[in-house]
Design goal:
The structure holds 2 protein chains of 2 kinds. Chain A is 0% helix and 52% strand. By secondary structure, chain A is mainly beta. Chain A is globular. The mean pLDDT of chain A is 96. Chain B is an all-beta fold. The model of chain B has no long low-confidence stretch (mean pLDDT 96). Classes of the chains: A mainly beta, B mainly beta.
């Protein structure tokens, strides 16, 4: 079955960097797109970034543009979220998620499978 | 302020039917598929509805989705205590070039 496991969360000071990893298993990694979605304390779900199945396109929410970078390493079945210049407001549980369906370039735009999440706390 | 609006809360008694609305615009719901998620905080969100009104395998037929113009609804029939969770709509927004979530609706089963 599809499994997504995040790692790399922790406590970091404002202005510092952190890299989240997400290892996928139980499916053909190279044929799917991946999202990062976060939930700040007391808030709703917020989409952060997506990388398409072929890695040719990446999109970000405005609040992280220029600071966060999504990437993938197909040889390791891993998706990354490099987070630089972290702010207190980036504190959240970060979920890695995979599209529900992707075949022949026709892919769902939203996630179908989710990991359990990684907590990132930005605090001095 | 979310791009797509949902009522912050909804409630019902066991066995009742309820509906959760989600309103958007021509750049998201009006031209792209909508997805619905069930989320119990601290756990992984669960896909309930995809492509406006399709159910993934394993999701009970008590859950259904509908769409009209730039608004969508999630209907839940035969409410159960385990349905108590937060519910989110989501759609790709062509103007923002990103996925947008509704603000979420907290469902309480009384």
């Amino acid at each position: 079955q599809v499994q997504l496991v995040e790692s790399g969360g922790g406590v970091v000071q404002p202005g510092r960097s952190l890299r989240l990893s997400c290892v996928g298993s139980g499916f053909s990694f190279s044929t799917h797109g991946f999202h990062w979605v976060r939930q700040s304390p007391g808030k709703g779900l917020e989409w952060v970034a997506v990388i398409w199945y072929d890695g040719t396109s990446k999109f970000y929410v405005d609040s992280v543009k220029g600071r966060f970078t999504i990437s993938r390493d197909t040889s390791k079945n891993t998706v990354y979220l490099q987070m630089n210049s972290l702010r207190v407001e980036d504190t959240a549980v970060y979920y890695c998620a995979r599209d529900r369906y992707c075949k022949g370039g026709s892919c769902d735009a939203a996630p179908g499978y989710w990991g359990q999440g990684a907590l990132v706390t930005v605090s001095s | 302020q979310s791009v797509m609006g949902q009522p912050p809360s909804a409630s019902g008694t066991p066995g009742q039917s309820i509906s959760i609305s989600c309103s958007g615009s021509s750049s998201n719901i009006g031209r792209n598929y909508v997805y619905w998620y069930q989320h119990v905080p601290g756990t992984a969100p669960k896909l309930l509805i995809y492509r406006d009104n399709e159910r993934p395998s394993g999701v009970p037929d008590r859950f259904s989705g509908s769409k009209s113009g730039t608004s969508v609804s999630l209907a839940i029939s035969g409410l159960r205590s385990e349905d108590e969770a937060d519910y989110y709509c989501a759609a790709w927004d062509d103007s923002l070039s990103g996925l947008v979530f509704g603000g979420g609706t907290k469902l309480t089963v009384l």
